[in-house]
Write a structure and sequence with these properties.
CATH superfamily of the largest domain in chain A: Type I PLP-dependent aspartate aminotransferase-like (Major domain)
Largest sheet of chain A: 7 strands, mixed
Number of strands of chain A: 13
Helix content of chain A: 25-40%
Strand content of chain A: 5-15%
Order of helices and strands of chain A: HEHHEHEHEEHEHEEHHHEEHEEEH
CATH topology of the largest domain in chain A: Aspartate Aminotransferase, domain 2
Strand order of the largest sheet of chain A: 2-8-7-6-5-3-4
Largest interface: A-B, 79 and 80 residues
Number of domains of chain A: 2
Oligomer: homodimer
Chain lengths: 390, 390
């Protein structure tokens, strides 16, 4: 028995762990200090009441054989597919055959590689959400990274090389920027010309505010021929602990693509949780949509506040308009670990060092506006006091 | 973009679909006929009340930020790991580091291949639960099948060849037999001698009655050095729609195996559903264990009744003692499709043709005792009337 040697390439995770351990160690040695995290990627809003009620009803369904639900469809219940297609994909005329309900975009965006040839040339950017690269490694795929440049505002240039698969995350984690129509159309045209597939991670779509940013890639001409779009209920409906996601594979990509993917899915997945699917269905109730809109506005207000204050303090900031995330340049040309240490030790603020998302010597860090407003305000006060004193 | 050509090898699923379609067509053409399925692999008992209550409490936890649970551990909550280790693995001294909570054994038993070299020689039996083979195909692995023989009562012979990975399902789906200590020890010795890993699918462990059949492979000497055991809450706690499973990777297999698998899992899975995990925890309450025992006894009573009646009618029957499944030889040397058609058209009984689980020309079929007693009794009456008339 030989272990999969490719797994030895998974190094970045140690950095996440290193952050966690450093914070834990600091807290242990400084029990009197109040450490606040601006690194949080989880939500700070509980699940809204109409969704809670729907999940209670679903739990009750399971207590009686007359309403019990056992194995569901491998691809999700029709009630949820219908709700998603009618709401998120209204007017796109996708059929239920083209949508899959699943249990998390992390798994979906990497498992989808099973659909494509193992030797496919996969392209992604640096910095990037590390899961695509490391998930691809677990699945014995090889990836190529395109270095993003500050002078281009971290918008990637269209490659001259031919790739088979392109990962895109928009609104982006970690940069926090979203592709506008013009930029996105260039990628679609690239994919068409190169017979490439775009894996479009759109889990932050609810945060999109800019009028020139599409909420779905399918708003753009020809996207249905080249793009698989992934979304989830994690951030808008606070399902980070409940687990429910979905993705679209358009029939237009290739004749048998959905037949083949269904056969694959039968063999690899036994369907998403019934309770989660009933909860997700209730996300689309009019009363839910109102409550969710309020939550999203709160997060975006936090982002707007934090962005403004960081800019006022002289930081270079990207993102935070169509996303809860911001990518920020360190001061004094510090590398991201040094900046992390400074923030933790002197200001008791946790930021995510950029090196988690890109190669060595990152001079950036990620902050998030998903936390509580009062915590974000306190961080801003600490930053002001520190930088105004300097 | 090239699709993964290995997915073209997934042919068996069409047989499942063919069964479903044939049954649907028959029902459509014969709306007055009462078709009963003996093929059912799902449960017929609802979820017990203590588990329902725990899931209601978990739903309420999510409605308030004071008790909200977002992203959990990638490997499961400690409360559930503790409950499993204290109950199912009492006395085995596994640490929480060696257990993983997941969302279904179908995914677990195939995804685990990511831990091992892509060129590992994988061995499984024919007949076998088709997911291992087809899941391995989705993950670009190659498998070798050992043909099981009726004259050996479908117990596989220890291979002379060296394999890296051996799939075992015990109690077995579809055969319905379980390995006894003697047989299992031979496989453990084989694995030790050949540095192989046993992937031991033990999802039907609650059905084990025979005193010479271990409820965990780890009861046997050296199993901790070679075996990964998979279990779930699907059949004992009727979680087929809720999705919660678990598996053990013993540290004894190899020094870094759990460190490596944790790094892999961070990149491929965002944890199991919180509500499901709270429900699963409640499975181990004393009042739950009593109710579950009653359910399992009901299923086993059904199996015992069906087995006895099939034997009385002159069928050759395997399994049904430590399992809800039985593997039955067709009459008159019919192949399994012809027998399926006979049963459907003449007796309005659905059985699962053996060719789903083995190569062509299977002369066997699978029946299950997971259905309702009255339905099973009615099938027996129909079979009696048919065979006694002949």
């Amino acid at each position: 028995m030989k272990l999969n040697s490719r797994l030895n390439e998974l190094a970045r995770d140690d950095i996440f762990l290193k952050v966690t351990n450093k914070v834990a160690e600091y807290k242990k040695n400084n029990p009197d200090k109040k450490v606040i995290s601006l690194g949080i990627g989880d939500v700070s809003k509980p699940i809204i009441q109409p969704v809670i009620s729907a999940m209670h009803r679903a739990v009750d369904d399971l207590s009686d054989m007359k309403t019990f639900k056992g194995y569901g469809s491998y691809y999700g219940y029709d009630f949820l597919k219908d709700a998603i297609l009618k709401n998120d994909y209204k007017g796109f005329s996708f059929s239920k055959d083209e949508i899959y309900i699943s249990n998390g975009t992390k798994t979906d965006t990497t498992s989808i590689l099973e659909l494509f040839d193992i030797d496919s040339k996969i392209c992604l950017t640096d910095p990037m959400y590390p899961i695509y690269k490391d998930g691809a490694t677990c699945l014995n795929r090889r990836i190529v990274e395109i270095k993003l440049k500050e002078e281009n505002d971290f918008v990637p240039e269209i490659p001259k090389e031919k790739y088979d698969i392109v990962y895109m995350c928009s609104p982006s984690n970690p940069i926090g920027i979203a592709y506008n129509r013009l930029e996105l159309q260039k990628w679609i045209d690239y994919a068409l010309a190169n017979e490439a597939i775009i894996l479009f991670d759109n889990v932050y779509s609810s945060f999109i505010q800019s009028s020139d940013v599409p909420t779905s890639i399918y708003e753009l001409p020809n996207a249905k021929k080249v793009a698989i779009e992934f979304r989830s209920f994690s951030k808008n409906a606070s399902f980070t602990g409940v687990r429910c996601s979905y993705y679209i594979i358009p029939n237009e990509i290739s004749k048998n693509i959905n037949r083949i993917w269904k056969e694959r899915t039968i063999n690899r997945f036994n369907g998403a949780d019934y309770i989660a699917q009933r909860g997700a269905e209730a996300v689309y109730l009019p009363e839910s949509q109102k409550l969710i809109q309020t939550n999203i506005e709160d997060y975006l207000d936090n982002a707007s506040f934090l962005r403004r204050e960081l800019l006022n303090l002289g930081f270079k900031v990207w993102g935070g308009i169509d996303s809860p995330f911001m990518w920020v340049k360190t001061t004094e040309n510090m590398d991201s670990w040094n900046f992390f240490n400074l923030m933790l030790n002197d200001l008791n603020i946790v930021v995510i060092p950029g090196c988690i998302f890109e190669g060595n010597n990152s001079k950036y860090f990620r902050v998030s506006a998903l936390g509580f407003r009062k915590d974000i305000e306190e961080c801003v006060e600490r930053l002001k006091a520190y930088y105004e004193k300097k």
